[in-house]
Amino acid sequence: MGFIRLLLALAVFNSHFPLMEDVHIVDGHEAVLTFFAISGFYMALILDTAYGSPRRFYAARLLSLYPQYLFALVLSLTLLLALDVHPYTSSAEFRRFLADPGALALSLWSWLTMTCQDLFFCLGRTADGALHYVPATRDGVWRQLPLVQTWSLSLEVVFYAMAPFLVRMRTRTLVLIAAASLAVKLAVLFGPLRAQGFTIRFFPAECWLFCGGILAYRVHARLPREASALDWLLLAGLAGLVFVADAAPDEAEPFFLPGCALAAMPFVFRALRHLPLDRLAGKISYPFYLLHFTAIAAFEKFLEEPVGWHILVATLAGAIATHFLFTQGLNTMRRNLRLRPVLPVPAAPVPVPLKVRGGRS
Question: Which of 137, 182, 183, 209 is placed for a possible disulfide with 36 were both Cys, Cβ 3.0 to 4.6 Å?
Fold first, then answer.
């Protein structure tokens, strides 16, 4: 699924600096929702094949995500404070924001833990600078986030905390949780809470995607090992849908591409799981996602008319460099902590489903 993840990261980039205005490429928010579905699949996969305890899983997730996140955060903060490089705020405005003790405490907590960044979208500032709840996202202080896009990591971290327990639940229990979450999502979209900005990034309304990914993995684990022509057809179809998903009706957008990804993942992963280039693409997608907004801001700061494709190439080069910069050190740390690498997953035998009573029902 690495190629798909990289395409989704490209879609997020396109939402922030349009490259393909004549193409109905999926909107950035819906691309992130599809990331959540893929994340559920991968966490079920690695918990089933790589880690024997929640502690080892948490340690591996921390090593996989935090160093590159911290690097991107420090880079963004340095450019903002030293050169006024940021897509939405200035160094002076940022310093005024942090002058409030509540804002400073929330910022430090969110930067260091990767949690609570979603709260910036439903908090505003009073005349004296204090934080207060605001219903409209446009009035939030999210513009003061050094990495605006990393609100999604806050939801991911909540899921990672729950993942070792979710993957051991019976299938029927997991289906009920997913159904309850989907009901919350529908109530948010079509009920009176729709006007409240916090519901756009509300974990209970998105948990169905993570649970759906776990269920998709259980389907994959029961498939024959050999890839088929159907797998490659679904891969091509899913990749193509990334470029047309924005043409779906507005009410269907939050469900269209994520739902298609959930249905196709068991087969698409079977087609791609032996390809090192696909694994590399997946690993590059994470630093690409972290760095793209900073790259856009830098080009817009120093060039009068920046060219989107130049920014894209520079971001991709930075993502590749960041990946290889951290790879050796992270692998050494995993070995020292006796953590098995998350990927590649052994090609054989067939992944064994979780041995939970009733887990296949």
Answer: 209
103: nearest Cα among 143, 135, 74, 137: 143
Summarised one tens digit per residue, pLDDT across range 130-176 is 899 999 888 999 999 999 999 999 999 999 999 999 999 999 999 99
| Residue 75 and residue 106 in one domain | no
Residues 320, 226 share a domain: yes
Which residues, listed in sequence order, are joined to residue 124 by a DSSP beta bridge?
Answer: 132
Say what the pTM is: 0.89
Are 99 and 131 found together in one domain?
Answer: yes
Of 8, 37, 40, 39, the closest CA to residue 245 belongs to 8
Residue 284 · residue 319 · CB < 8 Å: yes
> Which residue range is the domain that position 113 belongs to?
91-145
Number of domains into which the chain is organized: 2
Amino acid at 246: D
Q: How far apart are CA 218 and CA 361, in angstroms?
A: 11
Residue 51, pLDDT score: 78
Nearest-CA neighbor of 225 among 271, 289, 170, 264? 271
| Backbone φ and ψ of 132, nearest 5° | -155, 160
Which residue pairs, CB below 8 angstroms and at least 24 apart, start in 53-56?
54/164, 54/165, 56/339
Q: Express each pLDDT in 243-261 by its tens digit.
A: 999 999 989 999 999 999 9
Confirm whether 44 is domain-assigned.
yes
Question: Within 10 Å of residue 166's Cβ, how many Cβ atoms?
Answer: 21
Number of H helices, E strands in the chain: 12, 2
**One domain for residues 122 and 208:** no
